[in-house]
Write a structure and sequence with these properties.
heterodimer, A: 9 helices, about 85% helix, B: alpha/beta, 9 helices
Chain lengths: ~250, ~270
């Protein structure tokens, strides 16, 4: 029994050590600004199209689904309220983060995993560079900066999708839609909607780096690390989402 | 009057390394001295690469000590190891050039990133060109590793290993996976580096002929090729052979002793002197 637990406990310990070093390096020199900007482009700008599409369609679907439920109470004009709240609190952050996990956790794991199996990580250490400082910290910083921004974009595009359906299909006036959406949002929703992507960014980037850096077993190992990173990041996104939501609910602000 | 012994540059004291419960280096002890050449022979999986990585502090021993330039690597933090590593050049098995950087950036990497080297920014380009000319790879500065052949990548990696002028250079299977002609070219570069920069060399290989070249040939800089060492040119650097088998050091000595060994495993490696 103890032997069965040994490996996961060791993995958690290694992850915590990696996370600790990655955060500590934010305040230490050297800072690889070029790498941070490059990662912002790869992780952030590169994910823009997919995030916009996911945001748009989730807004459209939410408006369609909610209008049906609201019609039972004769409250179709509240569609904007429901779309805004569900997007800002939950769907925007979670769907964006899941797309990032699929695209970037796996991407980071395969890139770092390939470097690991071709001894580039060892070469980096041999040539005077800390791989965590050079590879992990820039990815952490770039994701923490870009994921909240992408979430805001996804939220807005989702609201836009809801507006299109409201106007074209539900025949709600634009003014009514935007007013109900605007008034529905409180500061807690905005806070929740921004804290979540920040936490998810840590999950997405560090899990990708963690699985990449512990890759063994050649190209087959890289494939395995890629899949594991994506699965683990997605599960951790849901677990941390429950924890954050529970925190906000227990504070009476959800 | 007795000759003063050369200072110790690398010393292993009862080093044992294991991964996931499997012992890959088992109680290995030896001492390499300045100016010496060491050839480490062994089958795949015998612990040759791990030995080199332990010498760089990339792998920490479970027990025993590794001393490089008289300093115990096990007692040092990662940041402190960077200073020692800047004095050791390393050629990795598959070159380990950074895919995302071009050849110039790859070779410049240690000059820019190793703090103790402190190469002025305006000298970096010239030193990179010099190192690439040394390995006869001038004109490839802008190319990426994926655009080069296996032999060219190996040469670029040698340039990266020696660009800082380290006194100790470790080569991990430099001729592995190359055709005989390219393998000979690579070995000629290693011997050129040894003879022109007077470096201490540790060569890991499974090809005995590589060790034989190291032990009996010198680089003729006028003709630009290897030639058998002659008495009148003075003695060659001492070459010591080591044989690893399943993590154990089973032989350490000169070429004559190696060739006269009755051990089956050892005699499989040394067929005949060329």
């Amino acid at each position: 029994m103890l032997d069965l637990l040994k490996e996961p406990v060791l993995a958690v310990q290694e992850f915590v050590v990696l996370a600790g070093k990655a955060f500590r390096n934010i305040f230490r020199t050297p800072h690889y600004t070029d790498d941070i900007i490059l990662q912002m482009d790869t992780i952030g700008v590169g994910s823009l199209v997919v995030v916009v599409l996911v945001g748009l369609f989730s807004g459209i679907v939410m408006a369609l689904q909610m209008s049906r439920a609201l019609a039972q109470y004769g409250e179709v004009e509240k569609t904007g309220t429901l779309v805004a709240i569900t997007l800002a609190r939950e769907l925007g952050p979670v769907l964006t983060a899941i797309m990032m996990a699929g695209r970037n956790s796996s991407g980071i794991a395969s890139e770092l995993g390939s470097m690991k199996v071709t001894e580039q990580i060892d070469a980096m250490r041999a040539l005077g560079t800390d791989p965590i400082q050079k590879l992990v910290t820039p990815r952490l910083e770039a994701t923490c900066f870009m994921l909240p921004l992408l979430t805001v974009i996804a939220d807005f595009v989702g609201l836009f999708g809801g507006w299109v359906i409201s106007v074209v299909k539900l025949h709600i006036t634009s003014r009514l839609y935007w007013n109900s959406a605007w008034q529905a949002l409180e500061w807690n929703d905005v806070a929740q909607g921004l804290i979540k992507p920040l936490v998810f960014a840590v999950v997405v980037s560090l899990i990708g780096c963690f699985y990449g850096l512990r890759t063994t077993g050649g190209t087959q190992g890289v494939g395995r690390a890629t899949t594991q990173a994506m699965v683990a990041a997605t599960i951790m996104i849901f677990i941390t989402d429950v924890m954050i939501t529970e925190f906000f609910v227990s504070q009476g602000v959800s | 009057m007795p000759e003063t012994p050369a200072p110790s540059i690398l010393r292993f004291e009862n080093v044992t390394v294991s991964f996931d419960g499997e012992t890959v280096l088992n109680d290995v002890s030896f001492e390499a001295f300045e100016g010496e050449s060491r050839v480490i022979l062994g089958a795949a999986g015998s612990g040759k690469t791990v030995l080199l990585k332990a010498a760089l502090g990339l792998v920490r021993p479970d027990s025993g000590r590794v001393l490089a330039f008289g300093q115990d690597l096990g007692a040092m933090r990662e940041a402190q190891l960077f200073d020692i590593r800047s004095r050791i050049g390393m050629l990795f098995q598959e070159s380990a050039l950074f895919d995302s950087l071009n050849i110039e950036e790859n070779v410049a990497y240690p000059l820019i990133n190793q703090k103790s080297i402190r190469c002025p920014a305006n000298e970096v380009h010239a030193r990179v060109e010099e190192a690439l000319d040394f390995v006869e790879l001038g004109g490839t500065l802008e190319k990426f590793p994926s655009e080069l052949s296996g032999g060219m990548r190996r040469r670029a990696a040698i340039a990266r290993a020696v660009v800082t002028g380290p006194p100790l250079v470790l080569y991990d299977s430099p001729s592995a996976g190359l055709d005989p002609i390219t393998a000979h070219t690579i070995m000629a570069l290693l011997i050129k580096e040894r003879d022109m920069a007077q470096t201490t060399t540790m060569l890991v290989t499974h090809r005995y002929q590589d060790g034989n070249l190291m032990a009996n040939f010198r680089y003729n800089s006028k003709q630009g090729r290897l030639e058998p060492a002659r008495q009148q040119d003075g003695p060659l650097p001492r070459t010591t052979f080591m044989v690893l088998r399943e993590g154990r050091l089973i032989f350490e000595g000169d070429q004559d002793r190696l060739e006269s060994s009755a051990d089956d495993y050892i005699s499989k490696f040394c067929k005949r002197r060329e």
